[in-house]
Specification:
The protein has 12 helices and no strands. By secondary structure, it is mainly α.
Length: 269
Amino acid sequence: MRNNRALSAREAYLRDLKRQKFLVVFTQIFLLVVLITAWEILANIGVIDSFITSKPSEIVSTFISLLSEGLFIHVGITCLETMIGFLLGTIVGTFIASLLWWSPFLSKVLSPYLVVLNSLPKVALGPIIIVWVGAGMPAIITMALAISLVVTILDMVNGFVDTDENKIKMVKSFGANKLQTFFKIVFPSNIPTLLNVLKVNIGLSMVGVITGEFLVSQNGLGYLIVYGGQVFQLDLVMTSVIILGIVATLMYHGVILFEKLISKSGKWQ
């Protein structure tokens, strides 16, 4: 009898959870439809200037025309540059953070420099990066790396340093050396920190890529936005921005999916 009640309560809880998820998704879609409809109506009746803000129908028209003009090439280039910058920033940043954990002296020496680099506007480095590595994709990837690298280092170092001291003392009491302590305790304990860094880095890397494309690229979504602004094709600008938002959302959810897969494996817990 008690088991039946517990089962019934669980089923009711699951139904309520599904209902809440449905309501959230429905409300999100409803708000989006209302916003798009209001945007179209206000533009048509002249309340807002469609030349400046464009309107949904013109954006759809521009999107269709872009499909035959190499849109997927531009999207693919932006995605490729973002993924390269994202992976490099995460891998190199985690490696440097590991070195800083390994050497507290080095960490203390470099700490103020990392703080300065983190607060420095990376756009200001754009002309320097172009001179150093040349125009084109190398400069764009370097810009993405510059934006995501320092954040990765700072977050991962803080996570490594804050690892449970009792666990570290326990493995050391069994004779573990520093390398074994890192790979058995410190790094596995900070997988959640790394996953959070991934979610931040995917956005930062895209910001770096778009900034780089503003400066030097002749391809990519950033290039389309700049070109549209230069020739006063605001429809192209708005369409590119919306596509960029969709791509960024898909990439972010890809990282979340990866996080769920890692969490389900449970190997790091």
